[in-house]
Design goal:
16 helices, mainly alpha, about 5% strand, single chain, about 75% helix, two-stranded antiparallel ribbon
């Protein structure tokens, strides 16, 4: 039950619940209502931005499983997104599979590729592992650009519009519900993953892999599993990108994309599913807001409009530096402190 000094439980069922207080249930209900109303009120531009946030949130959750929860560094996010996008696009375009089955195939293929490139984690740690995953990024993009027979090489891959029971899925409004649903399922799956023995093993490896091995956790197997599960989430994000955009090009999955996703989990909060969503929203909204600001004041400050890409890059770097210096645990920690202050007031201690 909730008290003025904290949250206590008298049963195991209460302790295992995802939501413990009435305020948490109320916040969840408010968020659900807001998500239902949002597509009816948003302009086409901002609805597109919201859809991008949903896709980015899925990929950020996947990366956080690997980096934040398991402690394994990865700079190959863009490459794994490309695997998911191209796999799903090819399964629909060449084999004629329904796009839901194609997305499942993309998740499985990306998980397999992620497990393969996660094998260096068996012997490498820290910076050395980061360089190995960076190599995965360049290898995957090189294969995409040069395997002309399958991927089309440097030419764009056109993806047919998704069809489900004879109904063609198109438009930002329709895709909003699909993307939001997938993001909700991904968040729920990741949250429950760390309530299982497998998820706790990941956390034990992050905290101290030698101690984890002493208590019976196999670090080798679990590190590869972490790469596979993380890449599966990323593959889903890549597949959604392919079917939402209807065109896949290798330029969408460069190293800059990998760095962007790493920034999302740093800003949002490492080791937090909610933080992954906060970070994705922040890092997608920031350049969109700067672009809108540049267009609105372009007549008054033409220099700002001309140098808009540079301003976006500068803001990107500044945000990461500020969070690393002042709040390394990200937006999730800021939000948690705000909730704790309100819940425990006036007992600040």
């Amino acid at each position: 039950m909730a008290t003025a000094t904290g949250v206590y439980h008298s049963t195991y069922t209460a302790d295992l619940a995802l939501r413990h207080t009435r305020s948490e249930h109320a916040r969840l209900a408010i968020v659900a209502i807001a998500l239902v109303i949002l597509p009816f009120l948003a302009t086409p531009y901002w609805l597109t931005v919201v859809n991008q946030i949903g896709i980015a949130a899925i990929g950020a959750i996947g990366l956080n499983i690997l980096v934040g929860y398991t402690g394994q560094i990865s700079l190959g996010q863009g490459g794994f997104l490309a695997v998911g996008a191209y796999t799903s696009g090819l399964l629909v375009g060449d084999l004629g599979l329904p796009f839901p089955l194609a997305m499942v195939g993309a998740v499985l293929m990306t998980a397999l590729v992620g497990a393969f490139f996660g094998l260096p984690a068996l012997r490498l740690k820290g910076l050395y592992l980061a360089i190995a995953t960076l190599a995965a990024q360049f290898v995957i993009i090189w294969v995409v650009r040069n395997w002309d027979v399958v991927t089309g090489g440097t030419a764009a891959l056109a993806v047919p519009a998704g069809e489900l029971f004879g109904w063609t899925v198109r438009g930002d409004f329709t895709w909003y519900w699909i993307i939001t649903g997938c993001a909700a399922v991904a968040a729920l799956a990741a949250t429950n993953l760390f309530r299982t023995g497998l998820g706790r093993a990941f956390v034990a490896i992050r905290d101290q892999d030698i101690a984890a091995e002493v208590i019976g956790v196999d670090p080798l197997r679990h590190k590869v599993l972490a790469f596979a599960i993380s890449s599966g989430f990323v593959g889903l994000a890549g597949a959604l990108t392919a079917h939402y955009r209807l065109i896949v090009t290798w330029e969408r999955f460069t190293l800059e994309v990998s760095i962007l996703y790493l920034a999302m989990i740093i800003v949002g909060g490492l080791g937090s599913v909610a933080g992954s969503i906060y970070g994705a929203a922040f890092m997608i909204l920031l350049p969109a807001w700067i672009q809108q600001l540049g267009q609105s004041v372009g007549g008054t400050f033409p220099a700002l409009s001309r140098n808009l890409p540079a301003v976006q890059q500068a803001a990107f770097g500044l945000v990461i530096i500020l969070f690393l210096v002042f709040e390394p645990r990200g937006l999730a920690r800021i939000w948690q402190r705000m909730k704790d202050y309100i819940r425990l007031w006036p007992f600040r201690y």
